[in-house]
């Protein structure tokens, strides 16, 4: 089959037009008219990911984070990112990314994160600004826990669920009760007021910086920051989804999730 055929099926699930206006999803490098036989699913496209694709015989890399989020200003191959692009093209790999369109899609990234946390009766947290997004297409989720817990205990639950060595807890009330939780994968600091407005006891998101954390505390909100890499939950989920589609449509392709950990941070 052609890469284009696979992408057409995926974009029935999460169209590019659902992405936020600043985003750059879709074809990153390569040729969608090229035939594909093996898909490597990954959160990030890094030099080691590209080498993994070559080692396992993949000809299509499906990523969550766009490989070319920041445009190349030169093609100086002494720059590792540029050399990665050159390797991709030299080996006729195709790289495609689904970013905020996958985040907001019903049954996509933020539903996977909410399910991992055990949230029930979930609704959308923030309206999507995607060009063709409907009210069913929303960034983040907010829902209820099956049983009340405390801020501290819930933070520990997040650490275990997302398999992280450490996380940051932003709270003046670690023993306060928690029944309602908001989650937004990636960098969601700017949306904390929506979590407050919808009655969240705790907001789970990544990349919280110093001054927004102070504002969150002033608003009386507890926040758990388990990092950006928790979005790697997409790797097994997408692999399962694509494998199901391949069986349903008799596609001559195999699908494999990356075995690499691309989280740049180590907790000491």
TrEMBL record:
Binding-site residues for a divalent metal cation 2, renumbered to this chain: 64
Keyword Isomerase attributed: no
Keyword Metal-binding: yes
Gene Ontology cellular-component annotations: cytoplasm
InterPro entries: DUF34/NIF3 (IPR002678), DUF34/NIF3_sf (IPR036069)
Keywords, ordered alphabetically: Metal-binding
Lineage: superkingdom: Bacteria
SUPFAM superfamilies from the UniProt entry: NIF3 (NGG1p interacting factor 3)-like
GO molecular function, one term: metal ion binding
Family classification: Belongs to the GTP cyclohydrolase I type 2/NIF3 family.
Protein name: GTP cyclohydrolase 1 type 2 homolog
NCBIfam families attached to this UniProt entry: YbgI_SA1388 (TIGR00486)
Subunit and interaction comment: Homohexamer.
Positions of a divalent metal cation 1 binding: 65, 103, 228, 231
Pfam families for this protein: DUF34_NIF3 (PF01784)
């Amino acid at each position: 089959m052609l890469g284009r055929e696979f992408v057409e099926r995926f974009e029935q699930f999460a169209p590019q037009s659902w992405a936020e206006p600043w985003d750059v999803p879709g074809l990153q490098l390569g040729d969608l008219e090229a035939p594909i036989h093996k898909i490597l699913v990954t959160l990030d496209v890094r030099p080691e990911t590209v080498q993994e694709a070559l080692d396992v015989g993949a000809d299509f890399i499906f990523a969550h984070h766009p490989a070319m989020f920041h445009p190349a200003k030169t093609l100086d191959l002494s720059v590792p990112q540029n050399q990665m692009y050159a390797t991709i093209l030299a080996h006729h790999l195709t790289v495609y990314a689904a970013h905020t369109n996958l985040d907001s899609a019903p049954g996509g990234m933020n539903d996977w994160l909410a399910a991992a946390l055990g949230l029930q009766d979930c609704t959308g947290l923030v309206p999507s600004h995607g060009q063709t997004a409907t009210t069913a297409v929303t960034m983040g989720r907010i829902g209820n826990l099956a049983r009340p817990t405390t801020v501290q205990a819930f933070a520990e639950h997040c650490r275990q669920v997302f398999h992280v060595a450490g996380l940051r807890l932003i709270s003046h009330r670690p023993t306060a009760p928690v029944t309602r939780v908001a989650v937004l994968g990636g960098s969601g600091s700017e949306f904390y007021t929506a979590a407050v407005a919808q009655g969240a006891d705790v907001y789970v998101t990544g990349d919280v910086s110093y001054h927004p954390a102070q504002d969150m505390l002033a608003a009386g909100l507890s926040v758990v920051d388990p990092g950006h890499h928790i979005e790697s939950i997409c790797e097994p989920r997408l692999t399962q989804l694509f494998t199901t589609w391949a069986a349903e449509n008799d596609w001559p392709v195999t699908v494999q999730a990356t075995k690499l950990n691309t989280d740049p941070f180590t907790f000491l």
